[in-house]
Amino acid sequence: MTYTLHAAHLYGDLMNTYGDIGNILAMGYYAKAVDAKIDVDLVSLGDTFDPNKYDFVLFGGGQDYEQTIVSKDIQAKKAALTDYIEDGGPMLAICGGYQMIGHYYIGAQGEKIPGIGALDHYTLSQDNNRFIGNITIKNDETNQTYYGFENHNGTTFLGKGERPLGKVLQGHGNNGKDGTEGVIYKNTFGSYFHGPILARNEALAKRILKLALKRKYPDADFSALDQLNEDLTKNVVIKP
Ligand SMILES: NC(=O)CC[C@H](N)C(=O)O
């Protein structure tokens, strides 16, 4: 392989709901088309996160209990992760991971679980309710439609410098109120979509992959990734 990306799977042993690791596998699948591969390190409790080593970070979802453990450990990685994000490092944060890169998440029992506040959103709790089911959103910048499955207690509200990943067409999204889903901040993407999101949405997988490749190899030609194979009509949304 001509090109190699180094990916960090952040707390992949604790936060990997519905096989969120599939997001890296999907990127690796498309990477082959441009002679690239992705090497993955698990970066977990007690490990150091080196912002200069990684070209992509995946931070998956998890249960409230695991999030309380991660919340304590991640404070030691806060500065390095914030540097990585601010420097335009590509990241995909799903559900619990998305909550933890913001200020805090109020868990289902009312406990405050601090995040790292690298992004300006915060997440509240619902009273005896979860948002569960299929979800469809539209990203206005690209006109692309993304499909996924959400299962969360948290209701997230975006803050300064954050724009949504998409507008909700079906399902609940960030908070069930303002019609937004997920976040984009610099090259960091957050979403409540499991599925995994990149396995189900080729266009987004290629967009994030290309960002990572171009950042590391600015002079190489990755235009082969602009070609989409997916037939979006295949994404049949099953109503609950
Ligand atoms: N699927 C998840 O990652 C869930 C995140 C969090 N525990 C919540 O319920 O909102």
Detailed description of the structure:
This protein is an alpha/beta fold and 240 residues long. It has one domain: Class I glutamine amidotransferase (GATase) domain (Rossmann fold, 3-Layer(aba) Sandwich). Bound molecules: glutamine. The site of glutamine has 12 residues, from helix 2 and strand 9.
Condensed summary:
This protein is 22% helix and 28% strand. The chain has 240 residues and is α/β, with parallel strands linked by helices.
Layout of helices and strands:
Layout: E1 3-10, H1 22-31, E2 36-43, E3 56-59, H2 64-74, H3 78-86, E4 91-94, H4 96-100, E5 104-106, E6 112-114, E7 122-124, E8 131-139, E9 144-152, E10 155-157, E11 166-170, E12 180-181, E13 183-185, E14 188-191, H5 197-200, H6 202-216
Parallel strand pairs: 1-2, 1-3, 3-4, 4-14
Antiparallel strand pairs: 5-6, 7-10, 8-9, 8-11, 11-12, 13-14
Helix pairs in contact: 1-6
CATH architecture: 3-Layer(aba) Sandwich
Order of helices and strands: EHEEHHEHEEEEEEEEEEHH
Number of strands: 14
Biggest sheet strand order reads 2-1-3-4-14-13
Rg measurement, Å: 17 Å
Low-confidence stretches: none
What is the CATH level 1 assignment? Alpha Beta
**How many DSSP H or I helices?**
6
Shape: globular
| Helix-residue proportion | 10-25%
